[in-house]
Amino acid sequence: MALVGVLALQGSFNEHIAALRRLGVKGVEIRKPAQLDSVASLIIPGGESTTMAKLAEYHNLFPALREFVKMGKPVWGTCAGLIFLANKAVGQKTGGQELVGGLDCTVHRNFFGSQIQSFEGELAVPELASKEGGPETFPGVFIRAPAILEVGPEVHVLADYPVPSDVLDSNSTIESPEEKIQSEKKVIVAVRQGNLLGTAFHPELTADTRWHSYFLKMANDVAEGASTSIIAVGVDLGLNNQPRNDLPIYRSIEN
């Protein structure tokens, strides 16, 4: 059974590992470059992106992460992980941060505001529902969340979300390409490009494991092309058989 790596420098890596466990798949904590050799796919979790970048730089992880992506191995970035995978990030702190890249998009860090502006919103997810079953919506948990402002031609948009009026007001002076997105009053919050998956929200903080199942099947498709596969022992990756109550469920944030 091939293993799924979860970058464990900071953030919600334990929650991802727990979600994988519920699907019968073992997640392995990754902190050093050599550990990437033992896994067939990787999840980069949410957290504080600047802190994660500094820790990744300290452990000399960026070259290994970039090589992992270039080799075509599946990588999923959630929230801060999405920022890591983007080719370009705006709205960063002074000095910016190093990126892994590979995902042809521009991401705005903390687009939806500060910690107290975190929220949960229902996302229309037709492709996820068609692949994994279940409802046509998904409970998107946005915590100091980024947003995808523009994507390249090879990027497939999986979900978008209306921009709250207070976010439009606070970003009213931001120049293109944000102005284009704002005029449409929606931003992109989930994408796929080949072996790369990115979500601006936190699926690992909900009871719904369909995004994890989607990633595992995506990883399995890629791995089969290389004569390897990820096997969930004794567990159907379909939604109907997924246990749903052994992980702490996210509750609405009280500001």
UniProtKB/TrEMBL annotation:
Its EC number is 3.5.1.2. Signal peptide: none annotated. The keyword Ligase does not apply. It holds the Pfam family SNO. It catalyses: L-glutamine + H2O = L-glutamate + NH4(+). L-glutamine binds at residues 47-49, 109, 143-144. GO terms for molecular function: glutaminase activity; lyase activity. One of its GO terms (biological process) is pyridoxine metabolic process. GO terms for cellular component: cytosol; glutaminase complex. Keywords: Glutamine amidotransferase, Hydrolase, Lyase. It comes from the Eukaryota. InterPro entries: Class_I_gatase-like, PdxT/SNO, PdxT/SNO_CS. The active site is at residues 79, 202, 204. Belongs to the glutaminase PdxT/SNO family. This is glutaminase. It comes from Quercus lobata (Valley oak). The lineage of its organism: Eukaryota, Viridiplantae, Streptophyta, Embryophyta, Tracheophyta. The gene is LOC115983617.
